[in-house]
Write a structure and sequence with these properties.
Elements: E1 27-31, E2 38-42, E3 55-59, E4 61-63, E5 67-72, E6 77-87, E7 90-97, E8 106-109, E9 114-121, E10 124-129, H1 134-141, H2 156-161, E11 169-172, H3 184-193, E12 196-202, E13 225-229, H4 231-242, E14 247-250, H5 252-261, E15 270-274, E16 289-293, H6 300-309, H7 311-323, E17 334-338
Parallel strand pairs: 1-17, 3-12, 3-14, 4-11, 14-16
Antiparallel strand pairs: 1-2, 5-6, 5-8, 6-7, 7-10, 8-9, 9-10, 12-13, 13-15, 16-17
Helix pairs in contact: 6-7
Length: 342
């Protein structure tokens, strides 16, 4: 398949610019991967789609206030988006400026602290903080890194709402957005129902928003994201399978995490970078159902969802969502999908 096979028309007014007042107030489009049937529901109805013994797997990464504003020594403005913290005083980052800074140059943050450009790593700049550790700088001067399709500056509400209620491990520069729909009350309802929960960590990078630039998908090189799947999660998945329950991934990042850890044929603990590119033709080893938001046209995330529930069925679901006025992308509505027949 080619990139154009994942195009669809999206009216700009359907791109959600702000979160709803309540996390669970979003709509939920249900797609049966076996039949292709669709149902319009509300996210608060999710417990009715689950059953005792199912295992929900969440990504517990926490979004860093990773956007910094600065100026170059020449006086020109620059915007820094931290991609990954490499050490307390070292990071890799995207830097936007009228002219790319050179190794050895310094960037003066709006708060007065300085960072030095020490080199390049492909499209990323390597930075060293000379005044404070990066976590301290981000806490003091960082802004929430809202996606490029949200056409406004970050606001205080984003500190809470562009973060899942179960986030606990700092490292992401984009939210695992399927998890934004869960609140503590819904999680409590699921526990009473007998639905089990577990966590992995995949630190979502800014590469998740990068477009696929090649028509031939065989030529696409997936961006790397740091992942940890521990032995406890592997045991929980095995126990769920043995008891006849389903493994339900909350978000495409949880799908990629589980499937990366099972790339050798069986689910095993994993710690390191994942570059797994899931597209139609991929054979899923772990995940039975998933919760996800609506994704950008021609994106690797849409390709993953199409591999999971069927290319034609997913594009038909997206056309239905557009017709019914669903809200798209990070602060938008959600889908619940079951896996198509192999």
């Amino acid at each position: 398949m080619r990139r154009a096979d994942f195009a669809f028309d999206l009216p700009p007014e359907l791109i959600a610019q702000r979160p709803l007042s309540e996390r669970t107030a979003s709509r939920l489009l249900v797609l049966d991967g076996q039949s292709g049937d669709l149902a319009d529901r509300m996210f608060r109805d999710l417990p009715s789609l689950l059953r005792a013994g199912d295992l929900l797997v969440f990504n517990d990464t926490r979004v860093l206030p990773a956007r910094l504003f600065a100026r170059k020594e020449s006086g020109g403005r620059a915007e820094i988006l931290i991609e990954r913290l490499l050490a307390p005083t070292q990071a890799s980052a995207h830097v936007r400026a009228s002219k790319s800074p050179k190794p050895g140059s310094r960037l003066l943050l709006d708060g007065g602290a300085r960072v030095e450009v020490t080199g390049r790593d492909e499209d990323l700049f390597l930075l060293r903080s000379t005044d404070a550790d990066f976590p301290e700088l981000l806490r003091a001067h960082g802004h929430m890194p809202l996606p490029p399709y949200i056409e406004r500056a970050d606001e205080p509400v984003d500190q809470q709402r562009y973060q899942t209620v179960y986030a606990r491990r700092d490292g992401a520069v984009a939210a695992p957005t399927a998890g934004l729909h869960f609140d503590e009350a819904l999680l409590a309802r699921l526990r009473l129902l007998g639905v089990e929960t577990a966590h992995l960590t995949l630190h979502v990078g800014a590469g998740t928003f990068q477009p696929v630039r090649v028509d031939d998908l065989d030529q696409h090189r997936m961006h790397a994201e740091w992942l940890e799947v521990d032995a406890a999660l592997c045991r929980r998945v095995q126990e769920t399978r043995a008891a006849g329950g389903r493994v339900i991934a909350v978000g495409t990042t949880s799908v990629r995490g589980l499937e990366t850890a099972a790339a050798g044929g069986a689910l095993e603990p994993f710690r390191g970078d994942s570059r797994l590119f899931i597209r139609p033709g991929y054979r899923f080893r772990v995940v039975d159902a998933m919760v996800t938001n609506f994704h950008l046209p021609e994106s690797t995330l849409l390709m993953l969802v199409s591999a999971f529930a069927g290319h034609g069925a997913v594009l038909a679901a997206y056309a239905h969502a557009v017709e019914r006025g669903y809200r798209f992308f990070s602060y938008g509505d959600a889908m619940f999908l079951t896996r198509r027949a192999e």
